[in-house]
Amino acid sequence: MSSRAVFLDLSPLEQGDLDLTPLHSAFSELVCHEQSTADQIVERLQGAQVAIVNKVALNADTLAACPDLKLILVSATGVNNIDLQAAGERGIVVCNCQAYGTPTVAQHTLMLLLALATRLPDYQAAVARGRWQESGQFCLLDFPIVELEGKTLGLLGHGELGSAVSRLAEAFGMRVLVGNLPGRPRRPERLDLDDLLPQVDALTLHCPLTEQTRNLIGAHELQLMKPNAFLINAARGGLVDEQALADALRRGHLGGAATDVLTSEPPRDDNPLLAPDLPRLIITPHSAWGSREARQRIVGQLAENAAAFFAGAPIRQVN
Ligand SMILES: NC(=O)C1=CN([C@@H]2O[C@H](COP(=O)(O)OP(=O)(O)OC[C@H]3O[C@@H](n4cnc5c(N)ncnc54)[C@H](O)[C@@H]3O)[C@@H](O)[C@H]2O)C=CC1
Ligand SMILES: O=C(O)C(=O)CO
């Protein structure tokens, strides 16, 4: 099989610091685009057997208009941007990258939890405003600090990243509880959401975005959480109802929230979580995965996935 591959959105992966040789060696021809808008996708994929995407959406109509396509390589773990069913119906194999950034994403998640517990953004802003010099004492303690040891962390998603976060949280002396997820077989050793939420001091999300997990955390779930609990989302924006979270923070219901992901990325200015008056909210720009080490592992996995597919034994196939 000839192997013409088109990478539709290389720019988030390649920041000028990677060795792309394995990727170029994996195909007879590789065309790379920095980014592709929705109306460029079909034209760019004409004659391509392989599409490589990170967050570009490949829906049923797009796939129908690309009859040569045999393989989609996702340069990420999350595959919610691909219509997996439509791909399967057309005999297109979809492979993702797995465990490529476990230390990087887990440290980011813990960083968000630590920043919430220690009120890092508030103290940093206070020092920048000159509050320390004015304080008349050696320290500034304007914002209550939470000790994590002995507190309970709830996990929704206990795969690669959830397990790594669990290990780090246990190293901080936290008790970890895992929740059952909609769309997955119920496991007796895990807690149903309504039982889990009132018990946790912090909740962190590490599951995929699917139709069943969309708005997993909405107004009802936020209300079940302790009024001083933390919510952390380094998985996918659609897992949390953003308006409900903004309302809860404004009411002072949560101790704080931190998110690395928003429902649409890049976000629009009218995203409810970008409102300037929201207290105790930390936002990072979907940067949790982005160490050079993690991005280089993605390059390696994309090349491995391509080689395995051409050898007739696909690996990391998700459909
Ligand atoms: N912010 C970032 O930079 C990154 C975000 N992610 C997100 O984190 C998510 C989790 O990544 P990993 O832990 O590596 O994945 P994983 O596949 O190892 O673990 C996923 C967890 O969710 C559960 N799960 C799987 N399919 C499900 C479904 N259909 N419905 C409900 N639950 C399901 C699994 O049981 C498992 O507990 C990814 O799907 C991705 O969306 C991943 C990497 C980087
Ligand atoms: O790997 C993922 O799912 C990410 O979101 C990073 O691209």
UniProtKB/TrEMBL annotation:
Query: Residue ranges of the D-isomer specific 2-hydroxyacid dehydrogenase NAD-binding domain?
Result: 110-288
Q: What class of enzyme is it?
A: oxidoreductase
Lineage: superkingdom: Bacteria
**EC number annotated for this UniProt entry:** 1.1.1.29
* CDD domains (alphabetical): 2-Hacid_dh_4
Query: Which Pfam family, an example, fits this chain?
Result: 2-Hacid_dh_C
**D-isomer specific 2-hydroxyacid dehydrogenase catalytic domain residues:** 21-317
Q: Which UniProt keywords apply?
A: NAD, Oxidoreductase
Keyword field contains Oxidoreductase? yes
User: GO molecular function terms here?
Assistant: hydroxypyruvate reductase (NADH) activity
> Which NCBIfam families did the record assign?
PRK06487.1
The family annotation for this protein states: Belongs to the D-isomer specific 2-hydroxyacid dehydrogenase family.
Q: What is this protein called?
A: Glycerate dehydrogenase
User: Which organism was this protein described from?
Assistant: Stutzerimonas decontaminans
